[in-house]
């Protein structure tokens, strides 16, 4: 092919004019470009030959992110995902086909990108982000997250914040995070320890809908109450230790039928297969277009940060597409008492009468903490431990004791939990 | 438990599951595939998508990005109309071309199969023709007008003008989405005469519960309930709706039949509710106090709906059914034997009560909603005897359920706003950065339009390798500034935002950046879905996007 001329500094896959569009940006600065921008060959060389980027998630956002990065000129891309492909992914995860159902997302996505975009290397890892250590994360210039799990995001956020060594500028890895729900979404840039981090904004998340057990057990009114009854109360009663698998259609079928029978008994309408699945799997509506918007803004930030070709987002972009297009760009503020990047303990003021159990309930309820099954200790005493069983039994009597009998006013409590990728320090004061 | 008995348990459990689910049909593959979107627009929206036929002018990176997001959710058919041949530049920035092997081949032909493979149930076709040629013949114009929606990306200004006039000429012609982008800046405009949205999905709150205008069954329940005779459990389970209806009734008896309106009156009213409690911790009373706003804020007709009543329906509107429903709504509110407000939706929020009371209340609401719907249908039949039989029950149902927030948008022709110097200048003061970006892009299209003919042919010239993109070499900051000045008027002082916008455009006048293309692909497809499904509310005006500071905004709406 005559047009596939090799550029002096490029590799064989770069045909002349391959980057005609992107190069218009890289060949000259714009009015809002930082003076440090090195227009021309140098920045192109860095982007296409030196930079290494990690994509976490190869799902709705991940597929889009991989395609955008590859076309933008990133050539060394790594992707991590622990999921396999489900048929319900195909309405948006556009690198997958019906024949791929059951295959690992990371591997199929990586192969697709390498076939479609010549000269781009995508290295997949089919597994959990927690499998990898600091050395692994240290090799990248940038990390982009397209996840639907709060827990995984908290983990990568805490990991990247902890990796920052003030003596080593290279240890600061910008984290770009995207998320969508239906017609809504957000993209943000986190410079660990410099800007607000994921943990700083935890209270912005919607509180998940929960139904009180007494409603489910005694006074169901909505179809959701019947479904919760089937999954939370009936399943363990009938099947004992057998684990419910919400991806198994037979399990969903049983829950549906059980919920339907209860609904009939109470004359409640509206239990359907789809609602049953939605409630037990906590399904969030997801469409290709919103994912495209959010993934594009994440990759655009990655491109701007990697090339310095234009100012990057400072630091939060939020979009609502239900009523026209509404978006809001703002600087989310760092929290001094952020348990990950703040350095200060979280102040809590409670009554002297509060028991340890009450304190635990309060922590579980708090939107800015979001912890399940916390264990607690001071620097000198164990207060309560969820595990191992012997220690739990040993500390269980403390649950009914007053916090004030165990912790002095102004003293610190360290909270740990398996779902919490860091230790949370509380400073307790009494009213 | 021993390992053996545990495994037996699990076997038994599995058998029990199989038995229980034997009779249940799990959803078919199509429902499973579309599950995550059906939760947003339901079967009615999906059917509308599947019936749609979309024409896209160009197979640029942006155009194929838009199509990708329409093929995935399952539109019926798409046609790409594009005479361009794939250039090396196209092969570099477009995910729906097969890399260098597509170079030299018709771009539309290359893109269609790669888009179609995203979804077997979508038809796709490539038409390798120049839209300018098509617009010259009756047959070509009929072809273009025969789609449900037309989307154009970076079409030459004169051609877009001609196309927009053609589609504007007849109300039954498809709407047009005109998309323009250059580097980090972009905008799109949806050309429509009128959009009627029966399911806007903009308000999650349950509409009026008729607490201050109770219908007979509700009123009877509340007034006959002897709170004192209830045992503590029953008392703690009286639905908040009943508590409030009763409280209003009691209040009116001692206040000349008037509702509490002043601040001290409202305070006294809340105290009256508090005094009805038997115990301090009755959650149904907490709820009654929290929902007391439903008494202060319950107009018979919300202001936005009232203003729709005075909207004259366009004479040749394809939305005749919607307008008939709207006028019937007006007649319903005005009917002397009616409730004097919008018909009851029948929806009831969850509340602290026992199952029996809740189901009973739900039935009371549903039954009365059916009564009012019957009344509504009677008025529809009377007012529109010819049209009424053609309107499905489902359509009436959807309309009545959403009567409190249905929307009507009136639009204008593409570029009409650009001819209104006064409006542009005023917008430049109110929303300087958004207007500046729009003016910059309008100036760019004017400048590119002046450049001599485009190059869409295969050939040996250097320019041909850039394919069907306009020649950006004539685009300068000064040239753009002069065009902007001409648009807003010579005597208008241009704010700094204009320099920022045109500086960015002059930097990359013909760049279809992968990320900008993907962003637009999502935005434009989302609007197209809203237009096709008639659910959610489309943009009115120019939606402007700046991917440097990362913001979006809307200017030039009606
Ligand atoms: Zn933080």
Keywords:
heterodimer, A: 431 residues, alpha/beta, Rossmann fold, Arc Repressor Mutant, subunit A, Structural Genomics Hypothetical 15.5 Kd Protein In mrcA-pckA Intergenic Region, Chain A, 13 strands, disordered N terminus, B: 558 residues, eight-stranded mixed sheet, two-stranded antiparallel sheet, 24 helices, 10 strands, globular, binds zinc ion
Structural summary, described in words:
The complex is a heterodimer of chains A (431) and B (558). Chain A contains 14 helices and 13 strands. With 431 residues, chain A is of the alpha/beta class. Chain A has three domains: 19-206 and 286-330, 3-Layer(aba) Sandwich (Rossmann fold), CATH 3.40.50.720; 213-281, Arc Repressor Mutant, subunit A (Orthogonal Bundle), CATH 1.10.10; 346-430, Ubiquitin-like 2 activating enzyme e1b. Chain:  B, domain 3 (Structural Genomics Hypothetical 15.5 Kd Protein In mrcA-pckA Intergenic Region, Chain A), CATH 3.10.290.20. In chain A, the strands form two sheets. In chain A, strands 3-2-1-4-5-6-7-8 form an eight-stranded mixed sheet, with helices on both faces. A five-stranded mixed sheet of chain A has the order 9-13-12-10-11, with helices on one face. In chain A, strand 2, helix 4 (105-116) and strand 3 form a beta-alpha-beta unit. The longest helix of chain A is centred in the last third of the chain and has 20 residues, at 288-307. Chain A is globular. Chain A starts with 19 loop residues before the first helix and ends with a strand. The model of chain A is unreliable at 1-10 (pLDDT under 50). Chain B is of the alpha/beta class. Chain B folds into four domains: 1-27; 32-200 and 517-555, NAD(P)-binding Rossmann-like Domain (Rossmann fold, 3-Layer(aba) Sandwich); 216-410, no CATH class; 417-510, no CATH class. Chain B has an eight-stranded mixed sheet with strand order 3-2-1-4-5-6-9-10, with helices on both faces. In chain B, helix 4 (61-71) packs across helix 24 and helix 21 crosses helix 22 (477-488). Chain B is globular, with a radius of gyration of 30 Å. The N and C termini of chain B lie far apart (72 Å). Chains A and B meet through helix 1, helix 3, helix 9, helix 10 and helix 11 of A and helix 1, helix 2, helix 3, helix 4 and helix 5 of B. Zinc ion binds at residues 196-197, 199-200, 335, 338, 340-342 of chain A. Residues 196-197, 199-200, 335, 338, 340-342 of chain A line the site of zinc ion.
């Amino acid at each position: 092919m005559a047009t596939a001329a090799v550029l002096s500094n490029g590799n064989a896959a770069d045909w002349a004019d391959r980057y005609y569009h992107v190069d218009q940006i890289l060949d000259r600065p714009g009015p809002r470009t930082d003076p440090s921008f090195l227009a021309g060959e140098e920045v192109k060389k860095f982007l296409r030959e030196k930079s290494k980027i990690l994509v976490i998630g190869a799902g709705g956002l991940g597929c889009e992110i991989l395609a955008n990065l590859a076309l933008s000129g990133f050539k060394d891309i790594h992707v991590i995902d622990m999921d396999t492909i489900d048929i319900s992914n195909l309405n948006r995860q556009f690198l997958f086909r019906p024949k791929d159902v059951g295959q690992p997302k990371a591997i199929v996505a990586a192969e697709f990108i390498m076939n479609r975009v010549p000269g781009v290397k995508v290295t997949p890892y089919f597994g959990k982000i927690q499998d990898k250590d600091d050395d692994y994360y240290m090799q990248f210039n940038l990390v982009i997250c397209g996840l639907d799990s709060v827990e995984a995001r908290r983990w990568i956020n805490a990991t990247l914040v902890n990796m920052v060594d003030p003596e080593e500028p290279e240890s600061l890895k910008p984290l770009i995070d995207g998320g969508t729900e239906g017609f809504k979404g957000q993209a943000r840039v986190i410079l660990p320890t410099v800007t607000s981090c994921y943990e700083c904004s935890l209270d912005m998340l919607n509180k998940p809908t929960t139904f009180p057990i007494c409603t489910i057990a005694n006074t169901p009114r909505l179809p959701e109450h019947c479904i919760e009854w089937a999954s939370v109360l009936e399943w363990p009663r009938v099947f004992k230790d057998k684990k419910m698998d919400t991806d198994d259609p037979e399990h969903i079928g049983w829950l549906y039928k059980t919920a339907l029978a209860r609904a009939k008994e109470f004359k409640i309408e509206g239990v359907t297969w789809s609602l049953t699945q939605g409630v037990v799997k906590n399904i969030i509506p997801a469409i290709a277009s919103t994912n495209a918007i959010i993934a594009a803004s994440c990759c655009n930030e990655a491109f701007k940060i990697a090339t310095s070709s234009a100012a990057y987002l400072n630091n939060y972009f939020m979009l609502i597409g239900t009523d026209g297009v509404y978006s809001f760009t703002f600087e989310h503020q760092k929290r001094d008492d952020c348990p990950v990047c703040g350095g200060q303990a979280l102040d809590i003021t409670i009554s002297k009468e509060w028991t340890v159990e009450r304190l635990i309930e309060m922590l579980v309820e708090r939107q800015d903490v979001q912890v399940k099954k916390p264990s607690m200790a001071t620097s000198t005493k164990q207060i309560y431990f969820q595990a191992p069983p012997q220690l739990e039994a040993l500390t269980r009597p403390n649950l009914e004791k007053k916090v004030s009998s165990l912790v002095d006013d102004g003293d610190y409590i360290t909270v740990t939990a398996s779902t919490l990728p860091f230790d949370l320090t509380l400073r307790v004061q009494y009213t | 438990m021993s390992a053996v008995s545990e495994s037996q348990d699990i076997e038994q459990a599995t058998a029990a599951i199989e038995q229980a689910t034997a009779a249940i049909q799990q959803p078919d593959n199509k429902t499973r595939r579309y599950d995550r979107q059906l939760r947003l627009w339901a079967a009615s929206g999906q059917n509308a998508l599947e019936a749609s036929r979309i024409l896209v002018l160009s197979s640029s990176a942006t155009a194929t990005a838009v199509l990708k997001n329409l093929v995935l959710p399952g539109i019926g058919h798409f046609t790409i109309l594009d005479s361009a041949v794939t250039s090396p530049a196209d092969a570099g920035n477009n995910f729906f071309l097969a890399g260098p092997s597509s170079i030299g081949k018709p771009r539309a032909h290359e893109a269609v199969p790669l888009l179609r493979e995203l979804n077997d149930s979508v038809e796709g076709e490539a038409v390798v023709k120049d839209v300018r040629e098509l617009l010259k013949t009756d047959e070509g114009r009929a072809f273009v007008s025969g789609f449900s929606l037309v989307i154009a990306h970076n079409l030459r200004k004169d051609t877009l003008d001609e196309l927009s006039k053609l589609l504007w000429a007849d109300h039954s012609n498809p709407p047009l989405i005109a998309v323009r982008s250059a580097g980090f800046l972009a905008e799109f405009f949806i050309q429509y005469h009128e959009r009627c949205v029966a399911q806007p999905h903009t308000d999650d709150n349950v509409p009026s519960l008729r607490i201050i205008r109770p219908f007979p069954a509700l009123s009877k329940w509340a007034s006959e309930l002897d709170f004192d005779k209830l045992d503590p459990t029953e008392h703690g389970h009286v639905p908040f709706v009943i508590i409030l209806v009763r409280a209003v009734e009691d209040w009116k008896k001692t206040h000349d039949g008037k509702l509490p309106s002043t601040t001290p009156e409202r305070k006294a009213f809340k105290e009256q509710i508090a005094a009805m409690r038997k115990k301090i911790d009755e959650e149904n009373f907490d709820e009654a106090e929290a929902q007391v706003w439903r008494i202060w804020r319950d107009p018979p007709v919300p202001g936005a709906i009232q203003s729709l009543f005075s909207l004259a329906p366009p004479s040749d509107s394809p939305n005749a059914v919607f307008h008939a429903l709207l006028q019937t709504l007006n007649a319903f509110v005005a009917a002397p034997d009616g409730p004097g407000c919008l018909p009851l939706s029948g929806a009831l929020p969850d509340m602290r009560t026992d199952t029996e009371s809740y189901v009973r209340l739900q039935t009371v609401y549903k039954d009365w909603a059916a009564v009012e719907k019957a009344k509504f249908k009677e008025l529809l039949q009377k007012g529109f005897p010819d049209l009424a039989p053609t309107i499905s029950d489902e359509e009436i149902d959807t309309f009545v359920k959403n009567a409190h927030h249905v929307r009507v948008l009136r639009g204008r022709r593409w570029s009409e706003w650009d001819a209104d110097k006064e409006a542009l200048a005023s917008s430049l003061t109110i929303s300087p950065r958004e207007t500046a970006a729009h003016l910059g892009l309008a100036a760019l299209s004017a400048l590119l339009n002046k450049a001599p003919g485009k190059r869409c042919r295969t050939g040996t010239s250097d320019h041909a390798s850039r394919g069907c993109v306009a020649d950006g070499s004539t685009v300068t900051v000064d040239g753009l500034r002069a065009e902007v000045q001409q648009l807003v008027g010579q005597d208008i002082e241009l704010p700094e935002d204009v320099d920022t916008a045109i500086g960015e455009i002059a930097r990359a006048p013909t760049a279809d950046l992968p990320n900008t293309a993907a962003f637009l692909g999502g935005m434009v497809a989302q609007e197209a879905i809203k237009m096709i499904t008639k659910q959610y509310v489309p943009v009115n005006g120019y939606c402007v996007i700046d991917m440097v500071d990362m913001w979006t905004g809307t200017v030039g709406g009606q």
